[in-house]
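Weekly modeling sync, notes
Attendees: S.R. (lead), two postdocs, one rotation student

Agenda item 3: backlog of single-chain predictions. S.R. asked that every request posted to the team notebook include the full sequence so nobody has to chase files. The rotation student volunteered to paste the first one in as an example of the format we agreed on. Action items at the bottom.

Example entry:
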Amino acid sequence: MWLLFLLVACSAAVLSCALLCRAALAAARTSPGPAPRPASGPHPDGGTAGRRGPGLTLYEMAYLSGGPHRLADVVLVLMAQQRRVLLADTGWATVVDPVGKDTVERAALTAMGPAGQRRIPAIRDALVGDDAVRELGDRLVTDGLAVPVAVRPGVGGAVRLVWGAALLVLLCTAASYWTAPPGADTGLLLAWCSLPLIVTLGTCAVARFELHPYSDWATTAGARQLPGTVRAPASPALPASLVTLALRGPAALTDPSLRAALHSSGA
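Predicted structure, as returned to the notebook:
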């Protein structure tokens, strides 16, 4: 029986590491590097959140950090802070001012429906297929900053898979130890079981130094453009709270009412 557990551990380790190598290779092949971008000038959306500067816009940071769902959270919180949308702690969004300042805001207002009220998860799902969000994603892919749809989930998902395989190896090692026949050389058994554990942990260590930060949405070039601290890009046009939300998600919000609204809706 212990041989069966060892076989499962080795198979999980080899398969997960192979998938990580494949994801890293696919990301490298589809990421030739960012194309030249204008240093200044208005963003096609026209809103302050989407205004192009020397770095990434708020919408671009949200998309590269968490995809369309993170972008939806950012635009909803942006409008809520400006008292143009009401976010209830029950997970509902209600329109207060039906005028959007850019195409993403207008898409969010449209996603709320003619009644001007809808649950936040439904708004997130509607924005995924909206033309404005797809154009933003396509522009980031063209610039070499976002991972194309064809290679998602990317390196981040593959790294999580390897960590899961390492946990499975530990469980299989424990199961092999307890099911080993009486008189078996447990030292040799543990030595064999340590091999897949070394493979998985070694692969994770290499990925940590070579591929970090991991992302299912941003390429290596895109991840490097994400700010390392939320204080750096803060400005009157880009409040630090919104940048924090874009980079880290709803859990990083300091406003308890907004955090409750996004978390109660499944964020």
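Discussion: group reviewed the output briefly. Residues 2-32+153-210 form one domain.
Action items: rotation student to repeat for the remaining queue; S.R. to check formatting next week.
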